[in-house]
Sequence to fold (175 residues):
Amino acid sequence: MMKILYFSAFMFAMIAQTNALDAQLDDYKTAKSDLVKRSARCSRGWTPLNGRCFRYIPRPMSWAKAERNCVSMRGNLASVHDIEEYHEIQRLILTSSHEYKETWIGGTDAQEYYHWFWSDGTHFHFTNWCSGEPSNSWNIYGREHCLAINHGQQKCWNDLHCYHRKPSVCAKKGY
Fold:
């Protein structure tokens, strides 16, 4: 009788342990699947952040050519909506170029002086302007209408003449 009890207890323990291992394996598979889904939100070469995908473009271009390049990849020059997002974009630039290069993002006031908007159409509410900026300075080529980040020692925002050739950051919605 004791042998049957021990055998029954042993079998019960084995079944319980097997069920627990199956549950852990299911949890692992779900977690792995979720991880794949999260990383699959952006195609190769793009970095996921806040439901969007970002890509640093090291080739220097004018602001307009950089925007056209982003549009050709189904995005726009990046808009920035809070300080955490700004720091992540800076980290992307640093990781790719090994320095905080002055880089185009999607802000412009070319349509109306001092009325800044994002080329992707999102609301322009967060700013990180350097002291005295935007200055909208004027020279023979016109006013400064395009937004670059990582300016000066503070690595803040500066408005520049759009013809300057700079690297850029594109952004598009994740899928």
In short: Helices lie at 2-39, 63-72, 83-97. The first strand starts at residue 47 and ends at 49. Residues 2-39 form the longest helix (38 residues).
